Amino acid sequence: MEKHLKQMQTLLEAGTPFVTVTLVEAKGSTPRAQGGRMLVTGEGLNSGTVGGGLVEAKALDFALDFLAESKLNEQTKFVQWNLNRDAGMSCGGSVKLFFERFHTNIWEIVIYGAGHVAQALIPLLLTLESQLTCLDTRQEWLDKLPDSPKLKKLCVKSLPETVESTAETAFVLIMTQGHRSDFYIAQRFLALNTQPFLGVIGSRSKAATLQRELKKEGFKKAVTERLVCPLGFSLGGNNPQEIAVSISAQLLYERDKLYDKIHLRNPLPEKS
Fold first, then answer.
1. What are the boundaries of each domain within the chain?
2. Is 70 exceeded by the pLDDT of residue 264?
3. β-pairing, 171-174 with 197-200?
4. For 124-166, what is each residue's pLDDT tens digit?
5. Distance between CA atoms of 115 and 175, rounded to whole angstroms?
6. Is 132 helix (H, G, I), strand (E, B) or coil?
7. Which CATH code fits 107-258?
8. What is the side-by-side order of every strand in the sheet holding 171-174?
9. What pLDDT score does 50 carry?
10. How confident is the model at residue 245 (pLDDT cuts 50, 70, 90)?
11. Helix runs in the chain, H state only
12. Are 78 and 100 in contact (CB under 8 A)?
């Protein structure tokens, strides 16, 4: 059990998608008593066993299929198999298995700029099931960020030139040193018009300026309205730590809205 938990922790810290399989009940003639556990990654069996043979082979295939599913809200499954009918074994018993998946449908967040707000925001986002990339032209600022297998720190000469290589499914946050660099990055992303979320840090006056400049560049209002600026919900103060909390809350809201995930909680704060 201790080895199983340590291996789970290793996969969790690395952000590796995996499924845990637990034999929760065994009746009749079965290859293993209840309590067997195994871990399955995209490469196949990672460690452990639920009995070997045809049962394990069927459980492995089921886990791999579950790992590949895109349903965000379904992270666990129970199955009950008759070993003779469902697994083709001569045994007359049955098993119940519990499958739970982790780090599937990885939430990718790309952050342009490693300044003060990013320094507060990134450690907070690392506590969530997400994979982060932070880009900056200043290595000394990237070096201040925490080391984590869930965070890529990229020092590049030109931030706008990296836009085309960003995954279309990534949430993008633009918070560089100044308005002009933010504008050129946002302009390229809006030209692609693919990201599910594109946000720029700043004030309402900066947002108005961005909209005017993008209009001059020929962007239609339906496209520029997809740009979220100011970034973050209208709550908290103006220090980096509270801004980071407001941005995190907005990102969670937008992620769940994207996947039609509804929470029966207090209403979200209205933007003024």
1. 2-102, 107-258
2. no
3. parallel
4. 999 988 899 999 999 999 999 999 988 999 999 999 999 999 9
5. 8
6. strand
7. 3.40.50.720
8. 151-155, 130-136, 107-112, 171-174, 197-200, 227-228
9. 87
10. very high
11. 2-14, 53-68, 116-125, 139-142, 179-192, 204-216, 221-224, 240-258
12. no
